[in-house]
Automatic annotation (TrEMBL):
<feature type="binding site">
    <location>
        <position position="94"/>
    </location>
    <ligand>
        <name>a divalent metal cation 1</name>
    </ligand>
</feature>
<comment type="similarity">
    <text>Belongs to the metallo-dependent hydrolases superfamily. TatD-type hydrolase family.</text>
</comment>
<dbReference type="GO" id="GO:0046872">
    <property type="term" value="F:metal ion binding"/>
</dbReference>
<dbReference type="GO" id="GO:0005829">
    <property type="term" value="C:cytosol"/>
</dbReference>
<dbReference type="InterPro" id="IPR050891">
    <property type="entry name" value="TatD-type_Hydrolase"/>
</dbReference>
<feature type="binding site">
    <location>
        <position position="131"/>
    </location>
    <ligand>
        <name>a divalent metal cation 2</name>
    </ligand>
</feature>
<feature type="binding site">
    <location>
        <position position="204"/>
    </location>
    <ligand>
        <name>a divalent metal cation 1</name>
    </ligand>
</feature>
<dbReference type="InterPro" id="IPR001130">
    <property type="entry name" value="TatD-like"/>
</dbReference>
<keyword id="KW-0479">Metal-binding</keyword>
<dbReference type="Pfam" id="PF01026">
    <property type="entry name" value="TatD_DNase"/>
</dbReference>
<protein>
    <recommendedName>
        <fullName>TatD family hydrolase</fullName>
    </recommendedName>
</protein>
<dbReference type="GO" id="GO:0008296">
    <property type="term" value="F:3'-5'-DNA exonuclease activity"/>
</dbReference>
<dbReference type="InterPro" id="IPR032466">
    <property type="entry name" value="Metal_Hydrolase"/>
</dbReference>
<keyword id="KW-0378">Hydrolase</keyword>
<feature type="binding site">
    <location>
        <position position="156"/>
    </location>
    <ligand>
        <name>a divalent metal cation 2</name>
    </ligand>
</feature>
<keyword id="KW-0540">Nuclease</keyword>
Amino acid sequence: MLRSTGKVALKMIDIGANLTDPVFTGLYRGKQKHESDLTAILARAKTFGVDKIIVTGGNLEESHKALQLAKEHEELLAVCEQGQKEGKVVAIGECGLDYDRLEFCDKATQLKYFEKQFQLAELTKLPLFLHNRNTGGDFYDMISKNRSRFSNGVVHSFTGEKEEMLKLVELGLYIGVNGCSLKTAENLECVKAIPLERLMIETDAPWCDIRATHAGHGHVKTSWQSKKAEKYAPDCLVKGRNEPCTLIQVLEIISAIRGEDQEAVAARVLENTENVFFKNE
């Protein structure tokens, strides 16, 4: 159920959605709250201008699931090595460093295996889908050291400082922006400074939704009614579960804070994304 929007005639690509997450089958923390609604989610995304979705995999099992989803739904593209020949795999990832979650993996192990992942990029010639969280310069140093080993890449869900972003852009990387990139005034200043020719957009669904407490929320024009999972309704979003249709909100905020025409921003971001991930289409 739509609350407010203008007519959506834009074409966008969500460069990162975790559609293998159990919540998209109606399963929340081990409890089945409603039936699987992925088909409805994809239809809603299409209605609001999302032409393609890159499905991310955080591990081998998720990557296999992402590949299977991409085979079943033409609008989905998977991020994993297997299946490249089938035309469904468009990047290597998600790979990188995350120092906010060291309880899962220590720094030394992360650094060791991040460097090994560049071998996949060399082998497949695919771009990298990169993760960087609170790494104190280690991520930049690793990318700089190995930059000649991969063709292209995007640092997704960017929440770092403007200075770090500019250094990554100087290395020829793209910057992915989602709701988590639009939380604070400092975040907005960083997003304003991203060169348009280096910008991509994403939802990182089911996470990184844009909330009323976010600094960019006042620029949102499109919204939907949402209900708790226990009271699921097909024409409403599930409260607390982000989904690809909200990509339009990311675009609305970016365009507003940069003072740029929304259609022009959408067109350039689409061009960026197609050049990196879909240049052979």
